[in-house]
């Protein structure tokens, strides 16, 4: 466990060399009633007018429609053939909607619930299919982003190429991950073609932002590629006294050592500041349960700061021994430090927390044939390490004294896993099988208490079957299990137990022949034991563990057509039930999860005539009724609501050739300024109001 990433690489290389000579030569594509899909893989960002985009070897998209992603299987299998549900937020979707947070980027993704805790710019928080994956389901470039109880890594959407949402138990290939799947954030990478853009942005709440994205070959041979992405923002927010300031920088460089060997270094630093006191006061009944939010904020200007500094550095290495054998290794070291001060009437609180994590994944990819069956085999192992220390103090006083902080609470988690996956192709059939065993070790030490240790091993698996027809229709079924260690403690139970889960799914994918469009639908059932959930008492959240199940249905339609029309529409039905928490909550719905939700975003880019260069877009997001606590009390039930977003852009070169590369764009989120109470876990908030900003971008 103390071996370095380079030692891991050397060991895996020896394994690869001993097996390369026995590998079967690469075979031709399998015959059968399948449609051959042309893979579009272009490094860099999509053109403003649409077209193909993607990150070389990681994801390929065409406008709003995703073609391939490594997130599903760690290979380049077309999304339409994978027996799994994968929803993708493409680069063009990001450029059209200009999300400011990860939550906003997921607004139109089916089955994803965001905004359950109202407007809270401190964290990115969301559910998938009723499961909270804030802590356990976020991955960056295929590696888990480890978090502590208070230390959650933030995301700057401007630094992303694409976002892939993989549904279903994926622990068999990703290790520690949520039973419902993962969100994989794909970073911008160096490009083979030169790119350069700068952008200025102004808008609501005194918003001023500048950003840049430059890169390309660093030498004539094109063997060294680079990219530098940066952003600086000074802004206020919808809440008084709560800033939204940020500095972000992300250097990346690729070295093509030869035709068979490549290594890409990815790094990032971000310093963000917002408020620590941003909660609405609640009214309570005689039993201490919330009866709703008040307009008054629990606000103390002397204790209202949340500053977080985070950084990461890592690399992606790949080497091909032959046409059929290659080795891959991805590593990342991440660190985070936060300081939070918050307060209300008669109390003040302070949190200091530091997080360190390391993740490394090494696997051998082999392509062999056994008779009519083609195999893409992955054999690998990975290593994960999380360490954090936290100091939390709360003081009840009238003169707002700084709370005294106790000694550090510390926790260290180590996870090692070995896995194998086989993607099999025989004519139109696609069979996916995978298995993995993880060894988990945790040590937790709080001041004044004995050290608590957990040590456990767990096997997880995944299986899927799909049938690819010549008509673009692909029915599929899948089943997967999961195993997820958790950080922190739970009420009256000590250190949180690992979460275990399983999911079954059946669906159909349709790649519309002759059009850049797709329709995907699926029905699912999942169960989770010792899942994490929060319950708020007063203003303090307590972490609990529960067993529950969820079942439902999702459908999504995507299109980017040659005439300039773009569409993303989805509907989801999610039915949750608590199986084990307390006697009074068994059989109840999970807090804040709507049974019904739908969204639609449509855009049109004028291709010719007097309006050429004009792009318009608008969307509606609907969230059905749901409960504000696990008791399902009607007094704080959340009523149905809908929000409207909009976008208008214009390519200025249509006015004058001197303005070539200049684009003006205006975006609005919650255009109708609909502000409603939203309750979750026995506490109530309000959502963010209307936000409008204009950007002027120059690309050359």
UniProtKB/TrEMBL annotation:
<keyword id="KW-0812">Transmembrane</keyword>
<keyword id="KW-0813">Transport</keyword>
<keyword id="KW-0798">TonB box</keyword>
<dbReference type="InterPro" id="IPR036942">
    <property type="entry name" value="Beta-barrel_TonB_sf"/>
</dbReference>
<keyword id="KW-0998">Cell outer membrane</keyword>
<feature type="signal peptide">
    <location>
        <begin position="1"/>
        <end position="25"/>
    </location>
</feature>
<dbReference type="GO" id="GO:0015891">
    <property type="term" value="P:siderophore transport"/>
</dbReference>
<dbReference type="GO" id="GO:0038023">
    <property type="term" value="F:signaling receptor activity"/>
</dbReference>
<keyword id="KW-0732">Signal</keyword>
<dbReference type="InterPro" id="IPR000531">
    <property type="entry name" value="Beta-barrel_TonB"/>
</dbReference>
<dbReference type="InterPro" id="IPR039426">
    <property type="entry name" value="TonB-dep_rcpt-like"/>
</dbReference>
<protein>
    <submittedName>
        <fullName>Iron complex outermembrane receptor protein</fullName>
    </submittedName>
</protein>
<dbReference type="Pfam" id="PF00593">
    <property type="entry name" value="TonB_dep_Rec_b-barrel"/>
</dbReference>
<keyword id="KW-0410">Iron transport</keyword>
<keyword id="KW-1134">Transmembrane beta strand</keyword>
<dbReference type="GO" id="GO:0015344">
    <property type="term" value="F:siderophore uptake transmembrane transporter activity"/>
</dbReference>
<dbReference type="InterPro" id="IPR010105">
    <property type="entry name" value="TonB_sidphr_rcpt"/>
</dbReference>
<keyword id="KW-0472">Membrane</keyword>
<dbReference type="InterPro" id="IPR012910">
    <property type="entry name" value="Plug_dom"/>
</dbReference>
<dbReference type="InterPro" id="IPR037066">
    <property type="entry name" value="Plug_dom_sf"/>
</dbReference>
<keyword id="KW-0408">Iron</keyword>
<keyword id="KW-0675">Receptor</keyword>
<feature type="domain" description="TonB-dependent receptor plug">
    <location>
        <begin position="79"/>
        <end position="181"/>
    </location>
</feature>
<comment type="similarity">
    <text>Belongs to the TonB-dependent receptor family.</text>
</comment>
<feature type="domain" description="TonB-dependent receptor-like beta-barrel">
    <location>
        <begin position="257"/>
        <end position="671"/>
    </location>
</feature>
<dbReference type="GO" id="GO:0009279">
    <property type="term" value="C:cell outer membrane"/>
</dbReference>
<keyword id="KW-0406">Ion transport</keyword>
<dbReference type="Pfam" id="PF07715">
    <property type="entry name" value="Plug"/>
</dbReference>
């Amino acid at each position: 466990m103390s071996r370095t990433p380079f030692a891991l690489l050397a060991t895996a290389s020896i394994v690869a060399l001993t097996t390369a000579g026995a590998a079967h030569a690469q075979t031709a594509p399998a015959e059968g009633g399948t449609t051959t899909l042309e893979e579009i893989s272009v490094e860099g960002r999509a053109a403003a007018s649409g077209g193909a985009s993607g990150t070389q070897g990681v994801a390929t998209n065409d406008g709003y429609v995703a073609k391939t992603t490594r997130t599903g299987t760690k290979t380049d299998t077309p999304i339409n053939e994978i027996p799994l549900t994968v929803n993708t937020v493409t680069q063009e979707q990001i450029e059209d909607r200009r999300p400011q947070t990860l939550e906003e980027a997921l607004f139109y993704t089916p089955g994803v619930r965001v905004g359950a805790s109202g407007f809270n710019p401190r964290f990115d928080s969301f559910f998938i299919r009723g499961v909270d994956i804030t802590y356990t389901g976020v991955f960056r470039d295929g590696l888990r982003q480890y978090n502590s109880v208070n230390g959650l890594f933030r995301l700057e959407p401007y630094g992303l190429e694409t976002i892939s949402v993989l549904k279903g138990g994926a622990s068999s290939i990703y290790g520690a991950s949520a039973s419902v799947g993962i969100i994989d954030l794909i970073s911008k990478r160096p490009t083979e073609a030169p790119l350069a853009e700068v952008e200025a942005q102004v808008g609501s709440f005194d918003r001023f932002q500048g950003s840049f994205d430059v890169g390309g070959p660093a030498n004539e041979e094109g063997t060294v590629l680079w990219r530098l992405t940066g952003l600086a923002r000074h802004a206020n927010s919808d809440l008084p006294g709560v800033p939204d300031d940020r500095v972000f920088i992300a250097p990346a460089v690729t070295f093509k050592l030869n035709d068979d060997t490549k290594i890409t270094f990815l790094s990032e630093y971000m310093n963000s500041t917002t408020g620590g006191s941003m909660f609405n006061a609640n009214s309570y009944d005689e039993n201490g349960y919330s009866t709703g939010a008040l307009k008054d904020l629990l606000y103390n200007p002397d204790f209202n700061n949340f500053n977080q500094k985070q950084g990461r550095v890592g690399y992606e290495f790949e080497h091909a021994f032959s046409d059929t054998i290659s080795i891959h290794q991805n590593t990342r070291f991440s660190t985070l430090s936060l300081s939070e001060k918050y307060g209300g009437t008669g109390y003040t609180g302070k949190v200091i927390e530091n997080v360190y994590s390391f993740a490394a994944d090494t696997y051998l990819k082999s392509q062999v044939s056994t008779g009519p069956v083609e195999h893409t085999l992955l054999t690998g192992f990975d290593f994960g390490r999380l360490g954090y220390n936290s100091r939390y103090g709360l003081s009840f006083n009238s003169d707002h004294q700084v709370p005294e902080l106790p000694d550090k609470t510390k926790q260290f988690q180590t996870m090692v896993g070995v896995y194998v996956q086989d993607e099999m192709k025989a004519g139109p059939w696609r069979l996916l099988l995978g298995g993995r065993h993880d060894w988990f070790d945790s040590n937790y030490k709080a001041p004044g208490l004995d050290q608590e240790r957990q040590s456990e091993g767990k096997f997880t698996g995944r299986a899927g079957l799909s049938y690819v027809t010549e008509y673009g229709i692909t029915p599929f079924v899948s089943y997967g299990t999961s195993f997820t260690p958790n950080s922190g403690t739970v009420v009256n139970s000590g250190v949180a137990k690992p979460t275990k889960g399983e999911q079954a799914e059946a669906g159909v994918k349709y790649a519309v022949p002759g059009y850049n469009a797709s329709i995907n639908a699926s029905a699912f059932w999942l169960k989770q034991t010792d899942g994490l959930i929060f319950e708020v008492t007063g203003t303090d959240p307590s972490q609990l563990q529960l067993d529950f199940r969820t079942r439902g249905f999702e459908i999504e339609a995507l299109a980017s057509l040659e005439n300039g029309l773009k569409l993303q529409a989805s509907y989801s039905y999610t039915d949750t039930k608590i199986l084990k928490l307390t006697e009074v909550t068994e059989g109840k719905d999970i807090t804040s999860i709507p049974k019904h939700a739908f969204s639609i975003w449509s855009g049109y880019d004028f291709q010719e005539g007097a309006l050429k260069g004009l792009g318009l877009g608008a969307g509606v997001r609907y969230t059905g009724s749901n409960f504000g606590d696990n008791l399902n009390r009607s007094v704080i039930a959340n009523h149905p609501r809908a929000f409207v977003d909009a976008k208008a852009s214009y390519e200025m070169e249509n006015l004058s050739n001197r303005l070539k590369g200049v684009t003006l764009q205006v975006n609005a989120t919650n255009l109708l300024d609909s502000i409603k109470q939203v309750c979750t876990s026995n506490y109530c908030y309000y959502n963010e109001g209307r936000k409008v900003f204009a950007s002027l971008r120059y690309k050359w």
